[in-house]
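hey
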């Protein structure tokens, strides 16, 4: 079917949907069509109107007195009956004078008379239609569930505008429900007799909907969970592809957002490629930064790099237009298109740093989350946001602070001031934490290896007190995560441990079909090691052996080369040493008690408990093992260092990325100072 014919059918249906229109081209219809549903002019719709006028049959373009005379009283000068005159007067003007007799032999007078009749009748029916529409939308706002919406739709005639708004309302009503509530409401919705009729109406009217209605219907249908393989979803995909050139920037953004949550197939891929082509064509015409950001979001993560570069260049050329909201939004836009543009990110970061006091909570949180997605590290930005969060701490609720802590932990950044303030609140009111918050706080503090200075035991006791409240209803996965977080600190929460080490819980954690089985085994292995080294003889052990899941061995040839130069003999150190409990040492050196002589490295079993020999463990840690912009070890590395000390090792921690930047002489002096130093490294907090 040709595009012009589609426009004609769609417009005809729009006019037929308005019962108050007596003529196909009354002033009301033309105005509605020209201005559109949103009240603004639309070039595409004006073109459609011209096409409709072009294809309209002749009888639609001329008025027929005979046709209209069948619907109004006949008025004849030969019969000047006062009753008939009163009847005619009542039809047009109840309060005005009786019009002069009009004869049908006078075309001009007849035309004026019939035009007045038609306009007044149209106004009456138009008011009725507006009243019904107002009633529908008033009642739609009062609906509290998808079934309420479907009950309402059943009481009104089917209209594409009604259907589109009904679907959007049904989606919004389910959006904020819990998962259990969503499943229940969706089941009732799918079983409702009106739901299939709504879906059928959308499928039938998709080609004739206005672009906004089509885009929002597509979004709502997908978000409501209607299977992607259904004819309804596939029809909407194809229609959106056919009418892609009609969509404005907002509609393109809605369609792009909908596609992000869909599985890949031919129709989805075709629509995604079409979106990218439309965006590329419109780049030169974009002059507004918000519209540019909308276009950037439309193209998706899989867009060609050349298209991403074009959009990046366009954004850089308009940097002088950047406002603070633009800078905040740009982080999310770049994350949506999976493009790490350092020049844009730096400019936006500076804008945020300069205006941090005027940014609300959620935009700041989204900036941090986007930094994680983009693998973008900016210490100045992190410090500025964390300091502001610490000052705004008392204006936020606990949930908001916890979300910030999790965002910083995902970035490997330790906001000391914020974490100390929040720890004070936890210690004073541990009951204020719910179950989810307790697990999240444990995770963020343990993985960032932070406790308030001088109050570690009090802080951990407060968290243990909060956790005990929820042991009766905590999930196995959350229980494992909480106990593991405690063990990173070397703290053993006995009630939670006793519950975790039950055979049925351990069996569920290591045999479930989920994707986290391997991660669960690693956490259980770490808990085993903690029970062995941090616990006592009465502490129960887990079911997994401690020698399971050894750490991977890596080669550090540059460190090995410096050690050969420093010690002069390769037999004076060992590399990639695997311990019985699963820990791996990058290098091991044996020295006398005075740390002046390096001894030949032999089998550890032959050394026994010789107090005259000191073992040195060299750990080459990657940058990910440290908090951002510091040498503060994160939780897993800190736990390993603590356990190695308990095993009798002196630990030398090498920040491997920094070590690689050293010259040979500097590297030699660094290792010499660390190995032969008389100072003993102290455990990190």
């Amino acid at each position: 079917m040709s595009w012009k014919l589609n426009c004609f059918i769609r417009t005809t249906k729009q006019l037929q949907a308005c019962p108050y229109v007596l003529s196909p081209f009354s002033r009301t219809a033309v105005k509605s069509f020209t201005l559109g549903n949103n009240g603004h002019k639309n070039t595409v719709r004006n073109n459609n109107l011209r096409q409709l006028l072009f294809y309209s049959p002749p009888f639609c373009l001329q008025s027929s007195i005979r046709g209209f005379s069948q619907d109004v009283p006949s008025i004849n000068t030969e019969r000047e009956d006062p009753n008939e005159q009163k009847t005619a007067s009542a039809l047009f003007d109840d309060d005005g004078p009786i019009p002069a007799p009009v004869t049908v032999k006078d075309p001009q007078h007849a035309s004026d008379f019939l035009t007045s009749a038609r306009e007044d009748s149209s106004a009456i029916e138009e008011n009725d239609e507006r009243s019904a529409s107002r009633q529908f939308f008033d009642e739609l706002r009062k609906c509290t569930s998808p079934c309420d919406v479907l009950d309402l739709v059943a009481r009104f005639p089917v209209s594409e505008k009604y259907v589109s708004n009904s679907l959007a309302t049904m989606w919004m009503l389910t959006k904020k429900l819990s998962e259990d509530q969503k499943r229940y409401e969706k089941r009732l919705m799918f079983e409702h007799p009106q739901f299939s009729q709504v879906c059928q109406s959308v499928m039938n009217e998709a080609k004739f909907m206005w672009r906004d209605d089509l885009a929002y219907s597509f979004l709502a249908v997908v978000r409501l969970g209607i299977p992607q393989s259904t004819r309804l979803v596939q029809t909407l995909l194809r229609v959106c592809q056919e009418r892609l050139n009609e969509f404005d920037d907002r509609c393109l953004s809605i369609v792009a957002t909908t596609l992000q949550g869909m599985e890949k197939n031919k129709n989805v891929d075709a629509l995604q490629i079409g979106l990218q082509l439309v965006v590329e064509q419109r780049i030169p015409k974009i002059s507004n930064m918000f519209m540019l950001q909308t276009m950037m979001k439309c193209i998706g993560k899989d867009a060609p790099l050349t298209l991403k570069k074009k959009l990046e260049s366009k954004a850089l050329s308009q940097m002088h237009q950047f406002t603070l909201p633009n800078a905040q939004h740009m982080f999310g836009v770049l994350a949506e298109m999976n493009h790490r543009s350092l020049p844009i990110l730096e400019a936006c970061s500076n804008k945020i740093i300069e205006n941090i006091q005027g940014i609300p909570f959620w935009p700041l949180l989204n900036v941090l989350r986007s930094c994680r997605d983009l693998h973008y590290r900016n210490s100045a930005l992190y410090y500025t946001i964390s300091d502001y969060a610490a000052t705004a701490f008392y204006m936020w609720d606990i949930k908001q602070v916890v979300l910030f802590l999790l965002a910083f932990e995902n970035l490997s950044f330790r906001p000391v001031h914020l974490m100390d303030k929040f720890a004070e609140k936890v210690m004073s009111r541990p009951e204020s934490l719910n179950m989810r918050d307790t697990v999240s706080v444990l995770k963020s503090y343990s993985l960032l290896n932070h406790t308030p200075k001088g109050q570690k035991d009090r802080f951990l006791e407060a968290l243990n007190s909060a956790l005990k409240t929820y042991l009766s209803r905590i999930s196995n996965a959350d229980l494992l995560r909480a106990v593991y977080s405690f063990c990173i600190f070397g703290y053993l929460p006995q009630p939670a441990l006793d519950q975790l080490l039950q055979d049925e819980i351990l069996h569920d954690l290591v045999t479930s079909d989920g994707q986290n089985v391997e991660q669960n085994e690693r956490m259980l292995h770490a808990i085993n090691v903690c029970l062995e080294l941090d616990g006592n003889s009465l502490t129960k052990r887990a079911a997994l052996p401690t020698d399971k899941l050894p750490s991977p061995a890596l080669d550090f040839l540059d460190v090995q080369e410096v050690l050969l130069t420093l010690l002069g003999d390769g037999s004076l150190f060992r590399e990639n040493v695997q311990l019985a409990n699963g820990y791996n040492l990058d290098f091991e050196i044996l020295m006398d008690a005075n740390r002046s002589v390096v001894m030949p490295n032999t089998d550890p079993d032959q050394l026994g408990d010789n107090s005259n020999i000191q073992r040195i463990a060299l750990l080459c840690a990657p940058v990910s093992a440290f908090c951002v912009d510091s040498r503060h070890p994160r939780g897993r590395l800190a736990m390993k260092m603590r356990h190695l000390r308990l095993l009798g090792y002196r630990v030398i921690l090498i920040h491997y990325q920094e070590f690689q930047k050293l010259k040979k002489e500097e590297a030699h002096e660094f290792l010499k100072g660390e190995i032969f130093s008389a100072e003993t490294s102290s455990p990190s907090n």
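Residues 15-111, 680-685 have pLDDT under 50 and may be disordered. The longest strand covers residues 584-592.
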